[in-house]
Amino acid sequence: KVQLVIPDRDGVRPTRKIRSLEAFAADDEEQAFEVEGQRMTIAQYFKQFYNVTLRRPDYPCISVSKIARWPLELCNVEPGQKWTKKLDPAQTAEAIKRTTVEPGRRTSMLTEGLSRIQPTPAALGQWGVSIDQQPMEVQARELPAPSVIYQQPVRPREGVWDVRGQNFHKACAINNMLVIVFDSPQFFSLTDAQTCVTGLVSACRRLGMHIAHPQPDINYWPQGADVPSFIQSCGAALMQKMGTPPDLVICFLPRKPCDMYGEIKRFGDQRVGVATQCMFENKAKKGGEPYFSNLALKVNVKMKGGVNSILQPSDLGPIARAPTMVCGGDVSHASPGSPNPSVAAVVGTLDPTASIYGTAITVQPSRLELIARLEEMMLKLLKQFWERNGCLPEQILFFRDGISEGQFSHVIAGEVKAVREAAAQAGRALNIEYKPKLTFICCGKRHHISLFPKNPRDGDSKTGNAKSGVVVDTGVVSPFHFDWYCMSHKALLGTGRSGHHTVLVDDSGFTADELQPLVFHLCFTYAKATRAVSVPTPAFYASRLCTRAQLLLSQEDDRTTVISSTSDSSQERMRQRALVEAQGRLKDIHPDQKERLFFL
């Protein structure tokens, strides 16, 4: 939004939203128009009617309506406008720094802020309503953490554990590595690349992985060369030299964000089906053992059959007693104002340990919150489950992220029905009657309940937050739903936000003592971390898969500024065209990436 500022007219400052930046200037004769029988340019108009002589009439004009054009130099940007697009890394870091407040200070801010407000406004007092200025006290319980099983079990402490001295539960072998540096040797030398590769190889070996050739050749990308073609040619040369194709492509990138990142992932995930691991040079050069150990966590699960850790059956509770698929679903939207479609992603476990996942992604109309093609996506996952296990799951546990309470009825009518229809269709394909027990849970962190320990000694030893495993299911929960709050993770900065879980459907009739520990324990299976995450891993994976799908869809042209300058009908046509184009671009993930966590 901009304000039109005209000298000597301080009281008149109309505010308008910019529709577009025009290609013509204020003194463009071709854009002259009739005013009171006289033809004049925009610059002449402002001179005659406002006595304003433009200093730069050659600057472009902005469009604020179908017929109104304003000179650029007479416009001021209205202060205090909300930025809805993605921040760059420096801005993100600054925003986090400014909004990080430790729990004790957060509590004081809330109570002090409330005391400045009239505690019982007249409108509330007439109805006998008052606002307590002190935090509400509720009962909570602390659930024990599960054992995380590598080659040996590890017991997390306050939601965190250490993998030093451990081997992966199923460590993979890397027979052939292809290494490419997408920068000049002047900025990232051969020695730098070799040192970083050695650091990663050492970390992988410490965790039990077999590296057949620990000192691969380093390839430097010629500036301006086509990225996929160069990777392809380097891979072909390596295959000719070693006799086998590369099973891991390591790429060093100069900065973040980097346009080449998307090209690399599209090449590996869709075109060829090879694991790719990118490193940004500044982080890699400074990275020590913890940095490369974290990379090894990602590399192992990107390889065929790699499993970092599992939970023991007793910690999986009811889903360990019968064949079960644990699913996660999410929808991701393009930035506001963009005509680009939304992306939906669903993941589902394919093994008894809930560590091997199948994936399904699709595009759908822009801003649509529900998963439009969930039946088709679930059918694909059920087929994968059958192919791997020779049976269909008796239970389906579905975690849905990103849903508000006002959408619950729509989810039950749409998505729950779609899961049941997919199951029925899978049964018909096998000529059996198939009705699995479905438990559908909405989970998320977008709520306004903050959990603080009454006694600081009962909180996290370092941050003062509620401890990992604290569950609240009384007082602040819904009287209409089976829901609870769980602080599953150890918050690193500021005040931690608990996960909120609401059960919409439960065919199995699980009790709170069965479901709450299970949901908590599933937060300990996120493959690339050695700490519990804030929501169950399937929901987290679905969110990450959405992000990867958006990346696979991305292209150089950006329509965000174009759509804001068009009519409603034109915007709808652009959305429809973008949807059709995206459906053509979002190709299936390569079969060789099947059952791999390629999106981490």
What does this structure look like?
The protein is α+β, with helices and mostly antiparallel strands. The chain is built from 16 helices and 26 strands. It folds into three domains: 76 residues, paz domain; 132 residues, Rossmann fold, CATH 3.40.50.2300; 228 residues, Nucleotidyltransferase, domain 5. A nine-stranded mixed sheet has the order 9-24-25-26-23-22-19-20-21, sandwiched between helices. A four-stranded parallel sheet has the order 15-13-16-17, sandwiched between helices. Strand 10 and strand 11 form a beta hairpin. It is globular.
Produce a short descriptive summary.
The protein is of the alpha+beta class and 600 residues long.
Write the layout of secondary structure elements.
Blueprint: E1 2-4, E2 15-16, E3 20-25, E4 33-35, E5 38-40, H1 42-50, E6 60-63, E7 69-71, E8 75-77, H2 89-99, H3 103-115, H4 122-125, E9 141-142, E10 148-149, E11 153-154, E12 173-174, E13 177-181, H5 190-206, E14 210-211, E15 218-220, H6 227-242, E16 248-253, H7 259-272, E17 275-280, H8 281-286, H9 289-302, E18 310-311, H10 313-316, E19 324-332, E20 342-349, E21 357-364, H11 374-389, E22 395-401, H12 408-429, E23 437-444, E24 470-472, E25 482-487, E26 499-506, H13 512-521, H14 537-553, H15 560-563, H16 568-585
Parallel strand pairs: 12-14, 13-15, 13-16, 16-17, 19-22, 22-23
Antiparallel strand pairs: 1-2, 1-8, 3-6, 4-5, 6-7, 9-24, 10-11, 10-18, 19-20, 20-21, 23-26, 24-25, 25-26
Protein name: Piwi domain-containing protein
Domain Piwi: 248-554
Domain PAZ: 1-79
